[in-house]
UniProtKB/TrEMBL annotation:
Its EC number is 4.2.1.10. Pathway: Metabolic intermediate biosynthesis; chorismate biosynthesis; chorismate from D-erythrose 4-phosphate and phosphoenolpyruvate: step 3/7. It comes from the Bacteria. It catalyses: 3-dehydroquinate = 3-dehydroshikimate + H2O. This is 3-dehydroquinate dehydratase. The record marks R17 as: Transition state stabilizer.
Length: 140
């Protein structure tokens, strides 16, 4: 199984930004743990602060990978373009959030991505990514 973990804006600062919400661990070190924990899954990782680059990556892998785990960050709440990109591809997408977006500011309670995603996982810290991988494994 080939999965892409796709992270959006500001997630390159994990371990440094708002550690009370996002924790002290960098995503790169967490990704290395995921690769060790799921040796039978071919995991790929891409992060960008640019909406266009995220769309390009969805187009690039969205017809050949078995799934995409997507934390679009703040674009979740603003990007119709990302929603359209997800709807346009055949690979299933699971929306992931590290924090519980429903316990945060009200503008974070709406997702443009959820309606076109297979499912959404939020509020379990970095473990949200594990849950998404396990969901993909159970579907196959």
């Amino acid at each position: 199984m080939k999965l892409l973990i796709l992270n959006g804006p500001n997630l390159n600062l994990l371990g440094k930004r708002e550690v009370d919400i996002y924790g002290h661990q960098t995503f790169e070190s967490y990704f290395a743990q995921l690769q060790k924990n799921y040796p039978n899954v071919e995991l790929h990782y891409f992060q960008s602060n640019s909406e266009g680059e995220l769309i390009d990556k969805l187009h690039q892998v969205g017809f050949s990978y078995q799934g995409v785990i997507f934390n679009a960050g703040a674009y979740t709440h603003t990007s119709i373009a990302l929603s359209d990109a997800i709807a346009a591809i055949s690979s299933p997408v699971i929306e992931v959030h590290i924090s519980n977006i429903y316990k945060r500011e009200s503008y974070r309670h709406h997702s443009y991505l959820s309606p076109v995603c297979t499912g959404s996982i939020a509020g379990f810290g970095l473990y949200s990514y594990n849950l998404a991988i396990e969901a993909f494994q159970k579907k196959t």
